[in-house]
Amino acid sequence: MNRFEYTDEHDQRLRIAPVEREQPNEEPALWFETTDGGFRGTSVKVPLSKLEEVIAGGRDMARQAVPLPGARITDEQLATAQAVLSPGAVVTAAAVLSTAERQFLTFALDLAFDRMVSEDGFTSEDEAVLARLRQLAKEA
Prior knowledge:
Layout lengths: L3 E4 L5 E6 L10 E7 L5 E7 L3 H14 L10 H11 L7 H4 L2 H20 L5 H15 L2
Antiparallel strand pairs: 1-2, 2-3, 3-4
Helix pairs in contact: 4-5
């Protein structure tokens, strides 16, 4: 049977595998299992009908991740910010964002699109903003 496995630098593992159904009417599900590299571990059974909710929750947690306390801006970042904020400056994504930052912005915008598709309450104005931000992320 297929499965997905991820092991971090501390040998802690995450394994995701399909649940073998015992009854034909049993809802399909996945096992999310974790171990500490030894014998201790835990697991949770996620019905496929709830999988998108679990993924969305993980994406929310990723969006809330913040830099470590004490992180400092580099001289280069400060010079770029001062140039961009100077009167008459033309702001482009290339002037403000590094390649890695543009890639991360693209990822975040993909998550926003997923949320827009799966939830109500988003307007055509929201879609226009998303399209503009996608364009900024592509500028080189």
